[in-house]
Hints:
By secondary structure, this protein is α+β, with helices and mostly antiparallel strands. Helices cover 31% and strands 14% of the residues. It has helices at 42-62, 79-84; strands at residues 19-24, 66-71.
Amino acid sequence: AVRPMVRVDLLVDGVAPLTVVFLHGKSRRSGASVAEDPMPGSRLRLAYGVALREVAGQCGAAGIPLVVMGDINDEPTSRSLTVGAG
């Protein structure tokens, strides 16, 4: 018998509260560079960081663990994470 291939991207089993954020940030190579946004997509990635900080604050206040996964398309020292996400 042939067994079908199955791909499980996420399997969650349990009763404990948990927040998982999957983030796919705007590419650093997308779009044209302009004076107010010299690195294409940087303002959008900064907005992602700000939103992530808000979610983290809400989870922290409620005592709920937070897991952030995905392709953020920035370095840990980038403005979107140091300033936006804090």
